[in-house]
Queue: 3 jobs
Job 1
Amino acid sequence: MLKDIEKIYYSEAQLKEIVQRLGAEISEDYKGKNLLLVSVLKGSVIFMADLMREIKVPCAIDFMCVSSYANKTESSGVVKIVKDLDINLEGYDVLIVEDILDSGKTLSYIKKILESRKPKSMKICTLLDKPERRVVDDVWADYSGAEVPDEFVVGYGLDYDEKYRNLPFIGVLKREVYEK
Ligand code: IMP
Ligand code: MG
């Protein structure tokens, strides 16, 4: 698995620092609110598990699973809900927890659906942001861990063809792996 990695962008220690900073910001901003963390599966699962333990105010959690990919490295914009939330969003300050904000098509779709369910507020927290790749104008990261250039990254929950999610760091996948 390691032989497929070109370089490491964020080590385990750096990711821990990033998640601690985000947790501290969120804990401050959501004092006295009714926080619900919505994890977008599967990519955000490790980030979610670490982030929620850095949040020092009460929060509820829920999970939704969407699939959006036409091919293995590019978003299609056609998003399907594979697993919906269990919790009714009314009265909640929803914070969507995502692994990476790329074209933004996936979150644009999720945001519209969740907004129609009338949460008290809704914001987005993403571990990684690829701002160069954005094609929608209604989605931005209210909380962002780190920016990455236009390269395909894996690890810490992020996959290529369902693999590499269990790497403890974020690294760039060698082009030969997905161009062959
Ligand atoms: P978007 O709809 O183009 O913003 O795609 C968002 C989703 O694509 C993310 O939640 C990831 O699952 C996936 N994705 C985008 N870029 C990468 C990447 O570099 N590595 C792994 N998955 C990615
Ligand atoms: Mg994802």
Job 2
Amino acid sequence: MIRAVFLTHTAAPSGAELATLRLLTELRRGGVVDPSVLLTAAGPLVDRLRARRIPVTVCGNAFDSTALTVAGSGPLRLLTGATGLIRLGARLGAIVRSDGADVVVAQSTKALLMGAVAARRAGVPLIWQVHDRVSGEYFGRILAVALRVLGWVTAHGVVANSRSTLRTLYTRGRVAVIAYPGVEPVANPSRVPQREPGAVRIAMVGRLTPWKGQEVLLRALSLLRHRPAAVHLVGGTFFGEQDYRAELDRTVAELGLPVEFVGHVDDPGCYFAQADIAVHCSVIAEPFGQVVVEAMAAGCAVVAADAGGPTEIVHHDIDGILVPPGDPVALAAALDRLIADPALRTRLSAAARERSADFGIAATAQAVTGLLEQVTGRRAVRAR
Ligand code: GLC
């Protein structure tokens, strides 16, 4: 068995952490990798991991996890944040060593910095599992280059959540795989047939944060010729994004839109199951976009932004519709076309369900296991 410690700095149930939760559950089931989690903050993820019988250690809850935040961080703030992470890394190294781990897998950029120190202390290789595109548009040009270099220097291997993410990294001389964050089989795949135009329900699932583009959807809704019966915005604010939520509230009131804010839910599946159309409209390239696959698996007709991960998932006009990111007019045109045409929605939804089967969690676990075997030089003997 390969003992792998997955290191992450946040226990908020946001996309990357939920992807990790599913991956570790599947790794544990597979029996080749023995996964555990080392967290530097307490939060809802801890109980969810434990419920799936994955060992969790929380270390350093005094640590300010907002240090090194991307938005509006000045050089001094970054430096203090980085120093804190390095110090914490040294403490984590002791835990990794006493755990007898074979490898550390860093789940975020902050975890990469801590993990680099921790893995070195423990004398084990480091893997960087990358959930974000390490690009200028997300991190700013200078930080993006610094992170790429840090990753290249410190990590023996890289797991990227899409081709698009992998392209933003330096991987020369390193082992690299793409492991699409897979979904778990839908528990109850039954759903109501696509509704008539006047009764259409739309769902958008995602953290309420400017780059996920909820504002673009609201603008698009105000331009529609065919008004939907209901629009559900599912998602919480985790990382100091309350101002954005207030802004969205104002837009909804100003434009008189039929929008309901659902907040964070652990399982957004039932919102997809009840929606005819699911919208994804991130304004910068989405690294992967698990919600796109989840919506497809639930049989929604999906509209997604044509950049990053969704372009690797959706075949335009076959199993979904791709629209230019950050363009409310184009999104409105796509929505009007879909709302008006239940037959089109039915065709897309059937194809979407089929396509979603290409993104199972077993394949993700297999790709990650292969990389861990390669990097640790251990190949487990599998039962035949
Ligand atoms: C991050 C990315 C998202 C991806 C998820 C899982 O949340 O923003 O695109 O689906 O990680 O890798």
Job 3
Amino acid sequence: MSDIILGIESSCDDTSAAVIKDGWLLSNVIASQDVHKAYGGVVPELASRAHELNIVPVVSEALSRAGVKASDLTAIAFTRGPGLLGSLLVGTSFAKSLGLALDIPLMMVNHLQGHLLADFIRQEGVEVREPAFPYLCLLVSGGNSQIVRVDSPLEYTILGQTIDDAVGEAFDKCSKMMGLGYPGGPIIDRLAKQGDPLRFKFAKPHIPGLDYSFSGVKTSLLYFVRDQLALDPDFMEKNKEDICASFQKTLIDILMDKLIKAAKQTGIKDVTIGGGVSANSGLRQRLELEGRKRGWRTFLPEFKFTTDNAAMIAIAGYYHYLAGERTALDVAPVSRMSDF
Ligand code: KG4
């Protein structure tokens, strides 16, 4: 008999539901929340309210696109954390209620685990190409910057992580400082394509081991912008492409230096990336370039699986299901989750 898993993701500002059947994706529906754009960042209370409005239509649409009825479901996987508590509450409560009504098991999933396993989402008409265990994943988003060794679908070791800001935050804050808008990553990515990445230099951190730091490079940009604007009030407008290209190159250099070090230390040659920042075109190109140079097999998630989506939660939940794990109905969401 087939296992049909409904995945639910509501950790931040995207409400998403997906259906997978024996590991194959049948549907993946995402409702994004434009309401936050006016505020230059996600407003938690507005996010929870939008999730409340979206969750029923999004789940219905996911079931309908998959061609399955609620009564066909084998189990429900949901994001327990990390994320915004109010947002997580909506998805968790919905998953629990539906699980109870249908009398089917629940599997809680760590959102980050979903990003780590995104390469295992199988799709009709798309070549199956999956990393072999153990592999390295550079997990980069608005809340995380980590190098993770993935030993099996349910076993992970964090080899290094940021000691301050996440790299996505650095992209977003750079964009804010330059008055370019939110979220900053895609805007900087677009402008960087037209700029000279070698024109300006920004400070790089000297952190031992495999950990990251992004607060210094952010401050370096802040002082640079302040000093240049004092000399020429139009500096930013005249040079924004080169600033974005140079800043983005600095962030990619920092990320790749430690990833290369991790690959050398572990001898692992299968390397993946995940999380919102893995959509960055410069980072994707650089990973492929380094991969070719170093004999790595590199795996880049499709763009639709880089940002928050329930397909990755469903696939992670499927592995928990196969391992016989079940989540009790008294589970509560958590804003921080230290382990996977
Ligand atoms: O994983 P995600 O959707 O949400 C969490 O943080 O959990 O990641 C969002 C982050 C934001 O900081 C956004 O600016 C960044 O991913 N991002 C990008 C790109 N697209 C999204 N950063 C760089 N380049 C991009 N193309």
